[in-house]
Amino acid sequence: MDIITYSLREGQAKSDRYYQDIAAFADEVLGEAERRSRPHVEAFQAYLAGNCHEIARTLAEHEFEFLTLGVLWRVYGGRAMGLAQGPRRTLASLARLRQQVRVLKPVIDWLRGVLSTLFLGIDRHLRWSERPALLHFDRLLGWLEATGDFEEEVTRLAPWRDFLKTVPDDASTILANAVELATWFERGSEAALGRYTVNVEDFLTRVHPNYHWREDNIFCGRQRVEYHLNMVGTEILNRAFRETFLASARKLVVVPPCMRAKPADKCLAKITSFGARCAGCTPGCRVHQLTKLGEKYGFGVAILPDDLRVFSIKSTGLNTSGGSIGIVGVSCALTNAPGGWKTRRMGIPAQGVLLDYCGCSWHWHEEGIPTDINFNQLLDVLGIQKKAARPAPDEASMEPVSALNRSLDDANKIDAASGLPAASDGDQMSIVRSCAGYCDGLSVGVTSMTCDC
Ligand code: SF4
Question: 278 in ligand 1 pocket by Cβ < 6 Å?
Answer without folding.
Answer: yes
